[in-house]
Design brief:
The structure holds two protein chains of two kinds. In chain A, 43% of the residues lie in helices and 28% in strands. Chain A has helices at residues 13-39, 41-63; strands spanning 69-73, 76-84, 92-100, 106-115. Chain B is of the alpha/beta class. Classes of the chains: A alpha+beta, B alpha/beta.
Chain lengths: 116, 422
């Protein structure tokens, strides 16, 4: 039998298996983290909802439109409620704005006392 | 020889994945913290604004110079601390709230927005004598005048030049001026008698001349009172905020380089000269003299409160080119017509705001707003005329629709923010 001229250094089977396990664990953890970070996109959605409520409140105050109403914006629904604030004179209102998604889940809400 | 070393390669790759993953975790943590801070700030700002609106809308909620904690929506989550205190003829309203270390505050100088139906150019009580107009006198807006009415006349070589005597409706006035809002001067009067602004002040006795200091005091702190038994001269420096300057004899602002903002001055005599520009409230018992080209910016107040120590004829004098944006109050306690306190508005002097004077008024300048006075006089080099106006302008239409006054005759219940403070 001819003798091999070159030595080929190779990993043992155990070494290879350990390496594969480490790689798999690392990738799993990395994927979990990535999913978790992507999940923080909910904050972006909430931020968008808050901005939308701020714009809506500014519009209501400028237009002095103090009636209850519901408004659909994209896939969301803005519920507006304006009522006299108890204990104050008639020019003070409690403006409540709530954004819900199509399933009725509340995304953001905003309460403010406003004057005429 | 080819090296295998799969474990080593794996460790290197794992390290890279760990670095990327920890960066992602850090990014997510920072993003979440920032968002939470944004949410808290948004809520605190809304609550602070709501608290101030509540305080403006319901005045009896907090007594003057008191503070109160309010739960805005009854959920135990939105509490604000509301504070009211007087600031000269105006009021200071404070609304503040906090969550952990995040604090939000609103401090506002508050006044009364006059109802347009209560705004008029002139109110002269009915003493059975007509008002005589001559020269380029202009009166624009609703006017309450004596039953004898208004007439054109010829004095000092000048006859009335306009087409209409009054550009607006004329209403009959009562025999007395509308009653002055005494609540307004309750605190001011006590300062003259006690030399104390309030019991919680930080009092500092000063020498006659204020050095070129920089003094800024927040309205959340105790009022800083600079006090002297002698005259005080302000020849420079910066004085801003919650500061009261009291002299038992005289205060002189002698330099245009002095910067004065929101400060209150109390002294028997107050002199403002040398083209000074600033924003202040000045209250005197003898006289206030505003020299040429001085500009007192909105919301400034000049108040003259006659008392037993006042001279025979106390007066506020505005020289040529002087501009006062705000209010002028003259409270004459004398009943004799020869010792009434009064206002002298020289030619070229301008008042943007309301004037209340239960004494005499010699108007040769311009009032972009309204004038309420007991008696009009016209002093010329040759004579003194009663009930005459020469080259005067009183135009209420020039008063800004955003003007907020001090409820001189309780003409309004609508409180508004005059100015945001620190």
């Amino acid at each position: 039998m001819a003798e091999l001229k070159h030595k080929l250094k190779a990993s043992t089977l155990i070494e290879s298996i350990i390496a594969m396990v480490i790689i798999v664990v690392c990738f799993s953890v990395a994927v979990m983290i990535y999913v978790s970070v992507l999940d923080s996109d909910k904050q972006r959605v909430k931020l968008k909802a808050i901005q939308m409520l701020n714009e809506e409140a500014t519009r209501i105050k400028n237009e002095k439109n103090f009636i209850d109403e519901q408004k659909a914006v994209n896939n969301w629904i803005i519920n507006k409620k304006v009522e006299h604030y108890s204990g104050a004179d008639s020019s003070l209102y409690l403006l409540s704005l709530v954004v819900t998604d199509s399933t009725g889940k509340i995304i953001a809400r905003r309460n403010e006392l406003i004057t005429e | 020889m080819i090296k295998a070393s799969s474990l080593l390669f794996t460790l290197v790759i794992s390290l890279l994945i760990a670095i990327v993953s920890s960066s992602l975790i850090l990014f997510a943590y920072i993003a979440r913290t920032q968002f939470q801070n944004y949410e808290i700030n948004q809520q605190l700002n809304l609550n602070a604004d709501s608290g101030l609106n509540l305080l403006l809308s319901r005045q009896s909620l907090v007594d003057i110079n008191q503070q109160k904690n309010i739960d805005l929506y009854g959920r135990g989550e939105d509490s604000v601390e509301l504070i009211r205190k007087t600031w000269g003829a105006y009021e200071i309203a404070v609304s503040r709230t906090h969550f952990k270390n995040t604090k939000v505050k609103r401090i506002a100088q508050v006044g009364y927005h006059p109802d347009s139906s209560h705004l008029y150019s002139m109110y002269i009580p009915d003493h059975n004598k007509p008002i005589a107009l001559c020269g380029k006198t202009i009166i624009k807006g609703k006017a309450f005048l004596p039953k004898a009415g208004v007439k054109r006349t010829y004095i000092e070589g000048q006859s009335f030049e306009g087409d209409n005597l009054i550009n607006g409706t004329i209403k009959k006035s009562e025999s007395t001026l509308p009653e002055f809002n005494k609540d307004l001067i309750k605190n001011i009067d006590t300062v003259f008698s006690t030399q104390i602004f309030s019991n919680d002040d930080s009092v500092m006795n000063i020498a006659n001349q204020l050095a070129d200091d920089t003094l800024k005091n927040s309205f959340l702190n105790r009022t800083l009172v600079l006090k002297s038994a002698g005259p005080i001269e302000i020849s420079g420096g910066i004085y801003s905020g919650n500061i009261v300057i009291i002299s038992q004899t005289q205060i002189t602002i002698s330099s245009s380089t002095a910067s004065i903002e929101n400060v209150i001055l109390f002294a028997p005599r107050i002199i403002i000269e040398n083209e000074f520009k600033g924003n202040l409230q000045a209250f005197a018992s003898d006289s206030i003299f505003i020299s040429n080209n001085v500009s007192l910016q909105y919301p400034s107040v000049l108040g003259l409160f006659q008392n037993k120590k006042s001279p025979r004829i106390p007066a506020i004098v505005l020289n040529e080119g002087a501009v006062v944006s705000g209010n002028i109050i003259i409270n004459s306690t004398s009943t004799a017509s020869t010792t009434l306190a009064g206002l002298i508005l020289q030619s070229g002097a301008i008042v943007n705001g309301q004037v209340y004077c239960n004494g005499f008024a010699d108007i040769k300048g311009t009032i972009n707003g309204s004038l309420m006075c007991t008696k009009i006089i016209l002093v010329t080099p040759s004579s003194v005329y009663e009930n005459h106006l020469l080259n005067a302008t009183i135009d209420v239409s020039q008063l800004s629709e955003h003007y907020v006054g001090i409820n001189l005759v309780k003409e309004s219940n609508v409180k508004k923010v005059v100015k945001w403070l620190n």
